Amino acid sequence: MRSLKISEVMWNHIEPIRCGTPLTKVVKALLDNHVTGLPVVDEKRQVLGFVSEQDCIHSLLVSNYHSEGEPIVDDVMFHKPLTVSPEMSVIDLAQNLGAGKPKVYPVVDHGKLVGIVTRTAILSQLAKSGNTIEKQRFANVED
């Protein structure tokens, strides 16, 4: 079985979040894109942070309770997110997934964001690969 690269399963059509974005717009982007988190970038698409649903939930609860006004993504984002290379093997990333690990990884090439890869995309690819292996094994038995 050929090892797929992250570039073959990543999503590159999702617009990242820019610094200064109000949290309500961040939530809309998360919901519209059906993802649990998104990278935060500067004008050069360099990853500065990562914002998750959990970050938004907590911050919106606190700001609504205290009537503090609308928070911005800079206030809640995680500032040192784990990133992956588009050349990384899907299998290598899958082996590193586990409890406490991100569900979404920014994919960075030469310092710039080129996409994201989700656990769902990795799971889907592994399931497809497993089916292919089973079909090949079954076809060889019938021959």
From TrEMBL:
InterPro entries: CBS_bac, CBS_dom, CBS_dom_sf, Diverse_CBS-Domain. Residues 10-68, 77-133 form the CBS domain. PROSITE patterns: CBS. The keyword ATP-binding does not apply. The keyword Cell wall biogenesis/degradation does not apply. It comes from the Bacteria. Keywords: CBS domain. This is CBS domain-containing protein. It comes from Marinobacter nauticus (Marinobacter hydrocarbonoclasticus).
